[in-house]
Amino acid sequence: MQGVILAAGRGERLRPITLTRSKAMAPVVGKPIAERVMETLVANDVDDIILVISPDDAEIIRHFEQESEIEASVRFAPQPERLGMAHALQCAAPLIKGDFILSACDNLVPADHVGRILAAYRDATRPNAVLTLMLVEPAQVTKGGIVAIDGPWVTRIVEKPTPEEAPSNIYSLPLYCFSSRILDHLADVRPSPRGEYELQDAIQMLIDRDGRVRGVTISDRLALTNPEDLLAINQHYLAIGGELAPLAPRAVGRYTKLIPPLCIEPGTAIGAHCTIGPNVYVERDCQIGDWVTLQDAVILRGSTVPDGATLEEQVIALVSD
Questions:
Q1: Same domain, yes or no, for 155 and 258?
Q2: Residues 184 and 312 in one domain
């Protein structure tokens, strides 16, 4: 089965992180978040992956062509304008050859959940699609696609309804398995009031015209919207794999303590009398002064942390004079 990852978003609510990189390239313990999503697909034998990207995102192309060690074929489908998920899928359509799994680049679920929706898709009931569903608080129904269900079957999906319009408080996450039938409906999707081509409209057409759209529930996921989310995601990955995270600073000063779990990339110099960790991720080529304390923090590439700084529960992109 092929995989499609939608990775063309700007990530404006992630600024200043996305001033110098795309949202898909936001770092998660040494790898871009798009690759972390990709890992969950590859763990389930999805080894032909299409990345929908902005045409000017040279960094993501360079990463997957030259740096990534992901065990999959990765191809790129440019999305010239950011006009919604249905439009993004239409950009990928010429490369899609059959059934596929589709994910946003900012939505992380365990690999075993990917396995569950693939198993549901291959079930004897022969669904045309499988959606990932999660129960949310009623106040959150305005933030995404909300579904009505009848047993295992999805009968309706509405994108960002008002509380009065919402058919339930069951949210459809941006992780799906689709038959190629969904591609037949993309050309019929009309722009929404916000000027985007919504994938939920194509899913509703699939329900109405072809039927057999299932849902598989999940209790939680990790989503990247703002810098606080990036901190939480990195803390999660450090917690589950911190012992395997690389420690490769260029220099470490005297009497500095490194407390795991933490990840320090090459090119970073750390001064004397520092306490670094726990739960710290330092990207490459940072300069950390003397007498610095870092805990529960992400330090973005090329940052300079001045002498004497104490930084906790923060994502840092700063340069000292």
A1: no
A2: no
- Looking at the predicted structure, is the pLDDT value of residue 213 above 70? yes
CATH of the domain at 235: 2.160.10.10
Contact 26, 7 (CB under 8 A): no
In this structure, the answer to whether residues 217 and 234 fall within a common structural domain is no
Give dist(CA 38, CA 188) in Å, integer: 29
DSSP state of 310: E
Q: In three state form, how does the secondary structure of 8-45 look?
A: CCCCHHHCCHHHCCCHHHCEECCEEHHHHHHHHHHCCC
- Ramachandran angles phi, psi of 189, nearest 5°: -75, 130
**pLDDT of 115-135, one tens digit each?**
999 999 999 889 999 999 999
Torsion angle, alpha carbons of 31, 37, 317, 82, to 10: 130
Q: What is the pTM of this model?
A: 0.93
Q: Residue 104 half-sphere exposure, CB side, CA atoms within 13 Å?
A: 21
pLDDT digits (tens, 9 = 90+) for 30-57: 999 999 999 999 999 999 999 999 999 9
156 and 281 share a domain? no
Burial 108-145 (b: 16+ CB within 10 A, else e): bbeeebbebbbebbeeeeebbbbbbbbebeeeebeebb
Q: Are residues 218 and 111 in the same domain?
A: yes
| Number of structural domains found in the chain | 2
Among 199, 223, 247, identify where a domain stops: 223
Q: Please state, as a whole number, how many other Cβ atoms lie within 10 Å of the Cβ of residue 314.
A: 16
Enclosing domain of residue 273 = 227-316
**Residue 321 covered by a domain:** no
Task: Return all residues near 36 (Cβ < 8 A) that are at least 6 apart.
Answer: 28, 108, 237
Q: What is the DSSP string of 185-233?
A: HGGGPPPPTTS---HHHHHHHHHHHT--EEEEE-S--EE-SSHHHHHHH
Q: Which residues pair with 263 in a beta bridge?
A: 281
- 156 and 84 part of one domain: yes
CATH number at residue 148: 3.90.550.10
Using only the alpha carbons of the chain, give its radius of gyration: 21
Tokens for 35, please give them: 């690759």
